[in-house]
Design goal:
Length: 122
């Protein structure tokens, strides 16, 4: 089966229709796993780094974050945020991310993408 990397760009509280991207990416990840594919990483870039921010309090954001946490925990999938985007563009404290999100960068994404059979962007 295929090795997949997902790149998510939309914030958990983005305006319609962008706010559906997190849910769509999550559902795609679930379907891929059920179909026997391997999900090597979910990379959160651009406004998607806000999935790992502790200040996201809306119900929509909380549900999106919970979905990714559960998927990661149950399937041992790294949830990597772009540290540079988080710190520079969103002024996030990247030392205290929501578990299991972790710091990374485009280098980690590029290495995972190079090893994957497919890179899917949402």
């Amino acid at each position: 089966m295929a090795r997949i990397v997902i790149a998510l760009h939309a914030a958990p509280t983005a305006d319609i229709p962008a706010h559906y991207r997190s849910l769509l990416a999550y559902q795609y990840a679930q379907a891929a796993l059920v179909s026997g594919h391997q999900l090597d990483m979910v990379f959160f870039y651009s406004d998607a780094v806000l999935h790992a921010a502790k200040q996201e309090n809306s119900k929509l954001a909380q549900q999106a974050i919970a979905n990714w946490q559960m998927l990661s925990t149950e399937n041992n999938i790294p949830l990597v945020i772009c540290n540079t985007v988080a710190e520079v563009d969103h002024h996030m404290d990247t030392e205290n991310l929501i578990v299991p999100f972790e710091n990374g960068g485009l280098s980690e994404f590029a290495m995972a993408a190079a090893a994957a059979d497919q890179v899917i962007q949402f």
